[in-house]
Amino acid sequence: MTSLDATALRKALLDETDLLADLYRSADPKTPIPTCPDWTLANLIAHVGGGNRWAAAMIADRATEFLEFQQVPDVRRPREMDEADRWLRAGARAVIDNIDTVGSDVPVWTPFGPPRPAEWWVRRRLHEATAHRADALLALDREVNIAPELGADGLSEFLEIVERGPRFETPLEVGASLRLRAVDTDDSWTIVRSGDTIAIGDSPAPALLTVHGTAVALFLLLLRRIPVDSPRLQISGDLSVLTTWLERIEF
């Protein structure tokens, strides 16, 4: 499966944040975001930028417990467009700068299980940006122009969170299996039930349900950003496997 090294992840976090900031400047901040009900584009920018400031603050504090948002300096999006633009871009940079200050391996609190090395937050904040930039592009009826390797890495990261984190209901019934095949990156993910969670591999063995599509389309499907009947996907097998997954996992 496609994986990005630390240098590529850091560059992608800054690049994706810049693209999101550019998009914000080019569109109406009041644009509704259907994939994030009750949000506008301005709300989406506030969420991503505030999340970066929050993660950066936890890294700087070497936090091993949840940090309340109201305790984070400059966590609120500025109202003026130019200030909000700079605020959004600088928040992503602060994540990286604070990791370099405290050290990549310093344990930091995460929402998904025990504390993890500070560098973990780069990948998490990257795919928060990729997912929400996709939300904005879908709302504006524009092409979701995320790079295939980012879509593949985002999908892998999402599946790892579901596999390791205690936050989600087990998304597969006993005996169920799901295979995802990215036609553009040649990646595959085979997902099976394992006790009260799932196990992920790349076995070519047949699954109860198989989904083919680009890496980005598969990423968006599992994040519930595009529907099961999207023309971007080819699905064969027992559709109830995917229906159950999507009913149980909301992210």
Could you explain the architecture of this structure?
- By secondary structure, the protein is an alpha+beta fold.
- The chain has 2 domains: 141 residues, Four Helix Bundle (Hemerythrin (Met), subunit A); 91 residues, Nonspecific Lipid-transfer Protein, Chain A (2-Layer Sandwich), CATH 3.30.1050.
- Helix content is 47%, strand content 12%.
- The protein has 7 helices and 7 strands.
- A 5-stranded mixed sheet has the order 5-4-3-6-7.
- The mean pLDDT is 95.
- The protein is globular, with a radius of gyration of 18 Å.
Number of strands: 7
Q: Which series of helices and strands comes N to C?
A: HHHEEHHEEEEHEH
Name of the CATH first level of the largest domain: Mainly Alpha
CATH structural fold name of the largest domain: Four Helix Bundle (Hemerythrin (Met), subunit A)
Strand order of the largest sheet: 5-4-3-6-7
Cα distance, first to last residue?
Answer: 22 Å
The main β sheet shows up as:
5 strands, mixed
Task: Write the CATH architecture name of the largest domain.
Answer: Up-down Bundle
Q: What is the helical fraction, as a range of percent?
A: 40-55%
Using only C-alpha atoms, the radius of gyration works out to 18 Å
Which structural class do you get from the secondary structure elements? alpha+beta
Low-confidence runs of at least 5 consecutive residues: none
Name the shape in a single word. globular
Nearest-integer average pLDDT: 95
The number of helical runs is 7
Number of spatially distinct domains: 2
* Percentage of residues in DSSP E strands: 5-15%
